């Protein structure tokens, strides 16, 4: 395991240095812009109670919160049954890494992103830094290692996320009353350091993370980098606190230089300006950009609106909504990282599985216009305005047959009608014919139209748009967007 001296030496050894000027020259892995679709998994100790969301470990210690009352009614007072007491219940008896990865590949994903450590501080991998990990406790399995091996066997890119930064304050409310968080603790202990909670977006809050905590954070992430060699590393939001800045630069240089030693590429996915522009891949949580960007980016979102982990009260999105989210991101030069939360035993619930398989069926027919594509000079048309920015997915949009998204690849144009169900003739206004007066948006030649997954279909260009008569589709595709390949010239 690399120590602080080794980490600093590697970070300064090149080709990258721990400065934003140097790190801004890192390039995203070449496969990333072509992959378009990955699977995120939030699975850990917080899944055991299957209650509300993945912040159970924090909320069960906040008096007046539903988790606080639920915990007392179900498991007993927090000084008798604390969060750590869920560990023996987390057995993962149904966990099969190959089965997970097979399902993710069936869904059409090209990369996977399991969480290595969430805010709760329970590591889902073998660690020399803390005994509170899935190898020494609970499942007694190296979950991250098994998923990496399974992804390699399946030909999927292996990535991971780390949410350790927020642990500085995540268990802090447990000090406010008689709970097990008030027990003596030191570095390496499960709840340590359990500090007072700041405003989560305050980059200058006090007490700021100490050098001891930040070194521990650096060592933990470097351990994941060295032992599991992720192709992408994702951080949640709180690393933008100013105390992390020098450690984050060191970590990024270490990660990028380690990848260079192997002749590989790597990149950090980040939010809220935690990295200097260009030093990693911009991630937009539960949202995206309104228009095509000159840089490739990623949105991470979940199959449910109200939780990232499995619970008994998930507000699921619909299959059409998820497919549109993928198309919309890709048309704007983004990737979709879609989260699914397995159950505590390691199984994936039937409805979650059905959604993933539905996406896979759609991509099997329409993937030619998704994988490896790039934005066209027009990204979208239609009356429905998609919300942009963070957390824009909290209410579904009502798409119509007049709403379209566009991509391009290998000289062809791909057009996706977002809500074609029940419409016998679709009209794409951006491909309208010359009306004798005004130059059309597309002034080229349409020589053929092919419905993806169905073959050539009748079309004609009129001054109001390209009229397409789609082929009949059967379940499971008939209520989903339709993609068309437009051959031009």
| Major beta-sheet overview | 8 strands, parallel, barrel
Mean pLDDT rating? 96
Helix content: 10-25%
Reported by name, the CATH topology of the largest domain is: TIM Barrel
- What portion of the residues fall into strands of 2 or more residues? 15-25%
The neighbouring-strand order within the major sheet is 1-2-4-5-6-7-8-9
With helices defined by DSSP (H or I, 4 residues minimum), what is the helix count? Answer: 12
Shape: globular
CATH class of the largest domain: Alpha Beta
**Overall SS class:** alpha/beta
CATH superfamily of the largest domain: Glycosidases
Distance between the termini: 58 Å
Task: Please specify the SSE layout and strand pairing.
Blueprint: H1 4-11, H2 20-23, H3 32-35, E1 37-41, H4 56-59, H5 66-74, H6 97-106, E2 111-117, H7 143-154, E3 157-158, E4 160-162, H8 167-170, H9 211-228, E5 232-235, H10 245-261, E6 267-270, E7 281-285, E8 297-302, H11 319-331, E9 334-340, H12 350-366, E10 374-381, E11 404-409, E12 412-417, E13 426-428, E14 446-451, E15 455-456, E16 459-462, E17 465-468, E18 482-488
Parallel strand pairs: 1-2, 1-9, 2-3, 2-4, 4-5, 5-6, 6-7, 7-8, 8-9
Antiparallel strand pairs: 10-11, 11-12, 12-18, 13-17, 14-15, 14-18, 16-17
